[in-house]
Automatic annotation (TrEMBL):
UniProt-recorded name of the protein: Laccase
Catalytic activity: 4 hydroquinone + O2 = 4 benzosemiquinone + 2 H2O
Phylogenetic lineage: Eukaryota, Viridiplantae, Streptophyta, Embryophyta, Tracheophyta
EC top class named in words: oxidoreductase
Species the sequence originates in: Gossypium arboreum
Plastocyanin-like domain ranges (all copies): 50-161, 174-322, 431-554
Enzyme Commission numbers on file: 1.10.3.2
Length: 571
């Protein structure tokens, strides 16, 4: 059975994996609530411009259905989801369903020119995927240019009906989306940077559910208000949808108990501060037991190097019911901008739940042992203002975007689009976090790394000290992975693997690589297709810190990429 909407642009169907899609029935909202207990918060998916005022200035922003942040997609584990996206703006668009495994359905993953050509103005595309074995908090966002600065929203995957959470049942749930705001058009910001060869301007403010809170030299007072009842437990689904900033999140006078990250359950642990890189999600329990009053919710950036960052602290308020206006607001102190220790403590506290029902299936043997160095460089540029431009690279290779989708080229055997010779280790090893080489120029190419179906991979992501070492939140499409190790300085292949956690490492889809340090991840390549791997700081993705894994088909149709849909966009 399968449902859709007549004369509407969003289609969400709630299917079992074996459903017959040709049987179409139509449901009212009441029938959906009764039969499925799924709360659909939107019924159309149009990409449109919306005039929006923040920081006492108005500009048109790219949105879905005119909302910022965009609408939340609610579904259950193993539901099939169809979203028909119609592009009503002048720019090409795509949507990436960040963290959704997309088992065999890479055509719906969304990164432009990797798995699909973009949706051109006036055109539509139906994304069709199943949330197989996933439950928790994820996000969706545009995956072309810098459109995701405002074109983003939450994905909430509820457990199967009748399956409880592996933690105390909350009384209520709240989605909190963190972001950045520029007074200028973000496309103009990055285009100017590419023309000059310099780094783009940092954002002007941070947002909580689209609001900055009070700001200096502006009468704008809009802030996100979280109204709560005393003595209740709330499940907060916190999402970092910022373009370029890793963020701290804190609620004055309250601790949070982390129970899930990136839609994977964790062993519960209590903290007063969450740390999220762009693309990461953290789900935490909040108990409202601090007394009736008004408490600041605050977000602030993390940056432990010389790179410029927007230091504005975004604020909102947690307000207990029956709080009188005369009660003073309880404030909080945020970690220093360079609080490396705070990020390390948070990262080390994360452990997979690793229960009988939710085991941590860490690969214990490795077929591919890879070392990727990541960082920035300088290339000559005759048209740039200073004769050079900033670039970024993996293993000193800056990724050149193709003009047609790599997945399409792979599926149809189209030659000349990409090569499968991405190096599994640096071609010229050096002291990655020590004295930097004098030559900061990178190589270029559209290269992928080929993996056999069901092979196991250990990938050590090594930050380098080129120009300025920096924390890099890196995202792998198409897979969850286990973060088995991390450290500062250069990875030592003789000593560091002995300290790996192979029992209950945290399971994620996006992981921060510490400044001038390394992170080791393991995953099983059980998803055929082409899967993007990149830094989730959008400036670094733009500069070329990206590559793709090509996972070959296995045996038979159940281990092979499904055929492309008829409405697949053309370049």
């Amino acid at each position: 059975m399968f449902m859709s909407w007549v004369q509407m642009l969003l289609f969400v169907s709630l299917l079992s994996p074996t459903s017959v899609q040709s049987e179409i029935r139509h449901y009212s909202f009441t029938e959906m609530f009764t039969n499925y207990e799924i709360y659909l918060h939107y019924v159309g998916d149009q990409v449109v411009l919306k005039n929006t005022t923040r920081l006492c200035a108005t500009k048109p922003i790219v949105t879905v259905n005119g909302k910022f942040p965009g609408p939340t997609l609610y579904a259950r584990e193993d539901d099939n989801v169809l979203v028909n996206v119609t592009n009503l703006i002048k720019d090409n668009v795509t949507i990436h369903w960040h963290g959704v495994r997309q088992l065999r359905t890479g055509w719906s993953d969304g990164p432009a020119y990797i798995t699909q050509c973009p949706i051109q103005p006036g055109r539509s595309y139906l994304y069709n995927f199943t949330l197989t074995g996933q439950r928790g908090t994820l996000l969706w966002h545009a995956h072309i240019a810098w459109l995701r600065s405002t074109m983003h929203g939450a994905i909430v995957i509820l457990p199967k009906k009748g399956v409880p959470y592996p933690f105390p049942k909350p009384d209520k749930q709240k989605v909190i989306v963190l972001g950045e705001w520029w007074k200028s058009d973000t496309e103009a910001v990055i285009n100017e940077a590419l023309q000059t060869g310099l780094a783009p301007n940092v954002s002007d403010a941070h947002t909580i559910n689209g609001h900055t809170g009070p700001v200096p030299n502006c009468s704008y007072r809009g802030a996100y208000n979280l109204h709560v009842e005393n003595g209740k437990t709330y499940l907060l689904r916190v999402i970092n949808a910022a373009l370029n900033d890793e963020l701290f999140f804190k609620i004055a006078g309250h601790d949070l108990t982390v129970v899930e990250v990136d839609a994977a359950y964790t062993k519960p642990f209590k903290t007063d501060t969450l740390f999220l890189g762009p693309g990461q999600t953290t789900t935490a329990l909040l108990t409202t037991d601090s007394g009736i009053g008004k408490y600041v919710i605050a977000i602030s950036p993390f940056m432990d190097t010389v790179v410029s960052v927007d230091t504005f602290t975004g604020t909102g308020y947690l307000i207990y019911n029956n709080t009188l206006p005369s009660i003073p607001t309880t404030v909080t102190t945020m970690p220093p901008v360079n609080a490396t220790w705070k990020t390390l403590v948070f990262a080390e506290s994360l452990r997979s739940l690793n229960s009988k029902q939710y085991p941590a299936n860490v690969p214990l043997t490795v077929d591919h042992s890879l070392l990727f160095t990541i960082g920035v460089g300088i290339d000559p540029c005759a048209t740039c203002s200073n004769g050079s431009r900033a670039v970024a690279a993996i293993n000193n290779i800056t990724f050149d975007m193709p003009t047609i989708a790599i997945l399409e080229a792979h599926y149809y055997g189209i030659k000349g689009v990409f090569t499968d010779d991405f190096p599994g280790k640096p071609l010229m090893p050096y002291d990655y976090t020590g004295v930097q080489p004098t030559n900061l120029q990178t190589m270029h190419g559209t290269r992928v790394y080929r993996l056999a179906y069901n092979s196991t991979v250990e990938l050590v992501i090594q930050g380098n000290s080129m120009l300025a070492p920096e924390s890099h939140p890196t995202h792998l499409h198409g897979f969850n992975f286990f973060a088995v190790g991390r450290g500062l300085g250069n990875f030592n292949p003789a000593k560091d693997p002995k300290k790996y956690n192979l029992v209950d490492p945290v399971e994620r889809n996006t992981i921060s690589v510490p400044t001038a340090g390394w992170t080791a991840i393991r995953f099983r390549a059980d998803n055929p297709g082409v899967w993007f791997f990149h830094c989730h700081l959008e400036v670094h993705t733009t500069w070329g810190l990206k590559m793709a894994f090509l996972v070959e088909n296995g045996k038979g149709p159940n281990e092979s990429v499904v055929p492309p849909p008829r409405d697949l966009p053309q370049c």
